[in-house]
Design goal:
Blueprint: H1 2-14, H2 16-25, H3 41-60, H4 66-86, H5 91-115, H6 121-165, E1 169-172, E2 175-181, H7 186-202, E3 207-214, H8 220-235, E4 239-243, H9 247-255, E5 264-266, H10 269-275
Parallel strand pairs: 2-3, 3-4, 4-5
Antiparallel strand pairs: 1-2
Domain STAS: 165-276
Protein name: Polyvinylalcohol dehydrogenase
Pfam family, one: STAS
Length: 281
């Protein structure tokens, strides 16, 4: 079986150009897809290289020694996943492209088996089972890695957005402003509680003016997070100051039983900064 498997492996590699040319020739026009017939020359060069490596990886799955397949599979997953994520390729497009490759590779395998005298039907059936397992491994490893990479990127993007949405802006030594704008939900309020104290410590802030003039309404959870933020800042030795508290927010906070009685408040940011002797920014 090992000699037959080696011969099949070499046969697939010898026919890799045939498989790739058939695969590329079957492409259609798909706007914005790397698999489109009108993809740029750079993309097509990259695809051809990756497609040849895909064929090599699949072919190595027939070998008795699985170490080569495992090595190629790991390299293939890293290369292909990072490429598809970079180009924003949805998984269904990748699976469709891999399905066409699957059909072409099996055509070569089956034709080789039927035209080679010493290959019987039992051997072809064994190859079929090996081929199915190999393709399943490619799909499973790709989807696992794709999920991992995209999840990591989404988290990084969310952290960047959180950082942009929750800036601690130093104005003079020891004094900084935290402008709260737009809608504040529980997630954002929680992120404020988790990130602002660390930012203040990094900027050596002693007084933090939390300006909520851009916030129109709050609920119980958001108000609770705001209150906890002022208490955490106090525990760290900082003095929190609130500015821009609207009548609606003040009334809502009192109704909810959340009173910032230990926190100095100002009607607007200008007044709060004047308290620290800051007349112009």
């Amino acid at each position: 079986m090992s000699d037959k498997a080696q011969a099949l492996y070499e046969h697939i590699l010898l026919n890799s150009d045939f498989i790739s040319n058939k695969w590329f020739g079957a492409r259609e026009f798909k706007k914005g897809s790397i698999y489109s017939m009108d993809a740029s020359e750079e993309v097509q060069r990259s695809l051809r290289k990756q497609h040849k490596y895909t064929i090599e990886t699949i072919a190595s799955g027939f070998l008795i020694n699985s170490s080569l397949f495992q090595q190629k599979l790991e390299e293939w997953v890293d290369i292909v996943v990072n490429s598809r994520v970079e180009y924003g390729t949805p998984i269904y497009e990748f699976l469709g492209a891999l399905s066409r490759t699957r059909e072409l590779v099996w055509f070569v395998v089956e034709e080789y088996g039927l035209k080679t005298d010493h290959i019987d039907k039992q051997t072809i059936l064994q190859w079929s089972a090996v081929f199915q397992r190999t393709m399943d491994r490619l799909i499973n490893e790709f989807t696992r890695k794709y999920h991992s990479v995209t999840s990591s990127r989404i988290q990084s993007q969310q952290e960047l957005l959180d950082d942009i949405d929750n800036p601690v802006i130093p104005v003079v030594d020891g004094v900084a402003v935290l402008p709260i704008v737009k809608f504040v939900d529980e997630h954002r309020a929680r992120m404020l509680l988790e990130t602002v104290p660390e930012k203040c410590a990094g900027e050596k802030v002693k007084y933090l003016v939390i300006d909520v003039s851009g916030v129109h309404n709050i609920d119980t959870l958001v108000a609770t997070h705001f209150y906890r933020l002022t208490e955490v800042l106090r525990l760290l030795g900082l003095t929190p100051v609130l500015s821009g508290v609207s009548p609606d927010i003040a009334i809502t906070s009192v109704k909810l039983g959340i009173v910032f009685e230990r926190t100095r408040t100002y009607s607007n940011l200008k007044q709060a900064l004047l308290h620290f002797g800051i007349r112009k920014l």
